[in-house]
Request: fold
Amino acid sequence: MFFHIVLERNMQLHPRHFGRNLREHIISKLMKDVEGTCSGRHGFVVAITSVENIGKGLIRDGTGFVTFPVKYQCVVFRPFKGEILEAVVSMVNKMGFFAEAGPVQIFVSNHLIPDDMEFQSGDMPNYTTSDGSVKIQKDSEVRLKIIGTRVDATEIVCP
Amino acid sequence: MSGEEEENAAELKIGDEFLKAKCLMNCEVAIILHHKYEQLQQTSDDPMNQVSQVFEKSLQYVKRFSRYKNPDAVRQLCVLGNLCPETVEEAIAMVPSIKTRGRAHDDEAIEKMLNDLSLIKKFE
Reply:
């Protein structure tokens, strides 16, 4: 699920950026550093929406770099164990299938695919029910439940 | 992290920081990301090169899975959710567009919607 949360980060800035545009420099560096990253605790940082507060800078001994504590709001995508979400199938093989929900990769093992669905190989590998009414193939939309997560951003799940 | 083991969204067991955080509907995320993308478009010629893969994938995902394609509907929903009107007249007074714009709900549909909302309120 997507969340809007407040995060804090210490930004180190080179003295050459000091001047009138200090705030802009800090913000653009923050965006470059943080957007698109992933952590086990907060999930994927998708976009920074606003910067709440930039604290007083602290000069680091010996280097001249200054550390600013920055508080910012951002949109994060964090999958939780037990959460049910929708995803788009990206690849199907006999071990199961891969799906994507936003930035997250999800793998569904064939043990967790309903028993009445059989794997069919061919140009368009897919899982089909015996009566052929439901088919999971590339680009299908599936609804699944997350049963486990791994921090490098891959999930294991079941439909 | 011991919290990691106990986390279970089905029982609303999620980390402290997320319990305090605002959760967003896919359609709201779509509005935010789209807005940001437009801003980028103004500042550079090739915005797709500027944004991270995470951003791009998220934008595609929320576009595909947002149930309320019409941003008006999202705002209506949000206002109604915040203000919790009790009667149909009240709701129409607050959000005149539920009667006129989009699907143009009739009184009965609005009444049902308000009942549903008040049910959620009781769960506190």
Q: What stands out?
A: Chain A touches chain B through 35 residues (CB under 8 Å). The mean pLDDT of chain A is 88. Helices of chain A lie at 22-34. The first strand of chain A starts at residue 2 and ends at 13.
